[in-house]
Amino acid sequence: MIWNAFLIALREIRRNPVRAFLTVLGIIIGVAAVITMVTLGRATTQAVKSQITGLGSNLVSIRPGASFGPRRPDSGIPNFTAKDVEAITNQIGGLAGVAPVTRSSMGTIYRQNARTTSVVGTTADYFTINNWNLTTGRFFTDEDARAGRAVAVIGQTVVTKLFEGDDPIGKKIRIGTSTCEVIGILTSKGQAGMSDQDDTIVMPLTTLQRRLVGRTSTANISEISISIEENADSDLIIEEITALMRSRRNLQDNEDDDFHVFNAQQLAETLSSSTQMMTTLLAAVAGVSLLVGGIGIMNIMLVSVTERTREIGVRLAIGARAREVLLQFLVEAITLSSVGGMVGIGLALLLCVVLSGAIGVAFVFDAQINLIAFLFSTAVGVIFGFAPARRAARLDPIDALRHE
Amino acid sequence: MNDSNPLISLKGITKTYGKGDAAFQALCGVDLTINRGEFVAIMGPSGSGKSTLLNLLGCLDQPTGGSYRYGSVHVENLSTDQRSLLRRHAFGFIFQGFNLLARTSAADNVAMPLIYHGVSMKERRQLAKKALETVGLATKLKSVPSELSGGQQQRVAIARALVTSAGTLFADEPTGNLDSHTTVDIMNMLTRLNEQDGITILLVTHEPEVAQYAQRVVVVKDGLIESDTWNRKPNLASA
Ligand SMILES: Nc1ncnc2c1ncn2[C@@H]1O[C@H](COP(=O)(O)OP(=O)(O)OP(=O)(O)O)[C@@H](O)[C@H]1O
Ligand SMILES: [Mg+2]
After folding, report:
1. ipTM for the complex?
2. I want to staple B137 with a disulfide (CB 3.0 to 4.6 A). Which of A78, A163, B132, B226 is the partner?
């Protein structure tokens, strides 16, 4: 009987495919939206995680100011000094490398091209700590730094925008008021959130301070970049660094930290938990459209029951029982919504492939969410098909046969 | 006639539509006995209660009072589902408006009742084909109702009523929508079914020409049987 009801349902769908399509459009969109949201959300979370880990998995950086993010320059919070860097290097165990970092935005000129770029002044350790690699040339060395040589390593964006195809190695560029020789080109790291990590010029801190900024103040290190050894306890080390910096910056017990220790691992977790929440939220919104789709099915099924009242009358007259009529219409609604669910899954697959390509994340087929969405669409058929089916089953045969 | 074992036996059947002030008594105590194999025409003026009577006989509706026995079954005691099953196994219906399923082939229309008999798809096809051959539509298996003439549609409807080998056919003005030529066709077919296959036929009609085909004419007026006459005696004497 169920099989027959299913066949009748399929015939009904075939009889009026356009209407069937419009009826289940809501379900199709709902299912496709839920699956796409969840799949892409999970892929994005994964991508964010691996991108941050790509910053250097054991990377810790310390910045002045209470929290991570842009800092008001007039906040009065002091930068770090070379002595701070020295203290961390000497007093904290389990560190693979420590590098002072100064970032400033500076005008750069090569021939007729001029643009503003983020210029980093640091030591040779910076490259290993931050997972930078070279495509050509060399990094600067401690020797370069000590001598204060005017050398620079540049990112891919600088290569394309400033040099426009010229080979930059050995070329001189003007940075601020001084001239530097390009000695190496960094491998691309891509975007990190809003900022282009490849739009950077790295040079020895000493050179930057002596030649470009024109002062040798020791208190202008805006960030200390640290990498922790592979097997060290990073939580403990971060605690030690915090304690050390607090004492070096003369903070009393009742004062808050005026610097921030940022840990890539931690950030990865925070960010992925927030993308996960976003995903859940979007999926819930998409789920609402599934419910709206269910109402669409109910609407059309009610119309269908009215339209087919005579048919129901005939079926009752030839001996169909109320429950058989109920079953027929229920199966019809479920068939519609399930077919809609399957089309939605197909559409989601397509969308996921296209969109994951467009936003540059890896597409992973998630059987679980596909199954859940499909079962949900079937459930929508049961829930919203029931009222119309019951209306059909309750018809009186004579009234139904007389219906115009 | 064998009074000890009639097919249908009505005693004091009444039917009241509506309640209170709006109540209307369509049947006011009908006694009627019909034997297996009879071909009965029910006539009478419009609004006299012919359709009401036929619907009660066909178990599509329930009487307000009185008793109805079909064979050995006390119909008035049956539940809705039991009446459905009685219709499924023993009755066939032919309607004035044909009531075929639109956009559904003649074969599928005819096969439809068999679904409720749990007959396999293959067997359904065979039986439907046979029933359509019986009504002379062997060539129209695949035609949908909109491709068939009124007479052909009514023949499909007859095939649908026959396909379950129902013993009793109920027809409410089956020729009401047909021209006189087609009416003759349909009535000849019903007569043949009655005489050759022994199917009991109860038919409501306005037209005396149609009633002629029946063995027996029952005239209803104002909810009562006014007359009950024989055109010709049934040719099967045995009960
Ligand atoms: N569902 C109903 N509710 C109320 N009154 C009804 C209903 N059905 C029939 N009647 C009334 O019962 C009476 C008998 O109706 P019925 O349909 O049996 O007449 P009929 O003899 O078949 O007439 P016709 O030849 O016009 O078809 C009519 O007066 C009609 O108005
Ligand atoms: Mg009538």
Report:
1. 0.93
2. B132
